[in-house]
Structure formats: C-alpha cells, structure tokens
Amino acid sequence: MKVKVTEQGLTIPKEWLEGIQEVEVRIENHQIVLVPTVVVPPRAVPTVESDPIWQLGSNPIVLEIPDASENHDKYLYGMDR
C-alpha cells in the first residue's frame, strides 16, 4: 500500500491497529518501524450461560397488582415518577 505524506504526516489504516492503544515509532535501517507498546486483549463475548442479564425475567413473581409494570416506581419507592 502506498500513502501520501501530507503536512501532518501520514495515515495508517485503523484496521491494522485493532486492539492496539499505543505504538512506539522509530527508524531502523532507513525504515519506519511501529512497535505496539499497549495492546488490549480481545474481549470475551458473554454467553447465555455466563451473562446474568440473559436470566432476567426467567423467574418472575406473581402479584395481585394489575398495574405493577405501569406504576412500579410507586410500588417500589412509594412515589409517582
């Protein structure tokens, strides 16, 4: 890939730096060398089994309050929203 050097320098495609937060830039043997110094490990994707949010609503309580979902603030905190 060739890139144009501008007054501000040059642009390196972000895809090449995925997971990298910081690089050391140096010149070695007339070549520009980028060395990652701060690398962020890839985040694990939570599974249905490991993420508690997927269990939300799986064990609902049953009350004799027909408008509980509409007026939950009133019932939880004793005040209207």
Overall description:
This protein has 81 residues and is mostly beta strands. The protein has one domain. 7% of the residues lie in helices and 22% in strands. The chain has 1 helix and 2 strands; from the N terminus they run ββα. The protein has a two-stranded antiparallel ribbon. A hairpin with a 2-residue loop joins β1 and β2. The longest helix has 6 residues. The radius of gyration is 27 Å and the shape is elongated.
Key descriptive features of the protein:
elongated, two-stranded antiparallel sheet, 1 helix, 81 residues, mainly beta
Summarize the structure.
With 81 residues, this protein is mainly beta. It has one helix at 72-77; strands at residues 20-28, 31-39.
Class inferred from helices and paired strands:
mainly beta
Which series of helices and strands comes N to C? EEH
Biggest sheet character: 2 strands, antiparallel
Distance between the termini: 58 Å
The percentage of residues in β strands lies in 15-25%
Strand order of the largest sheet: 1-2
| Quantity of strands, as a count | 2
Number of helices: 1
The value of Rg in angstroms is: 27 Å
Shape: elongated
Secondary structure elements and their pairing?
Elements lengths: L19 E9 L2 E9 L32 H6 L4
Antiparallel strand pairs: 1-2
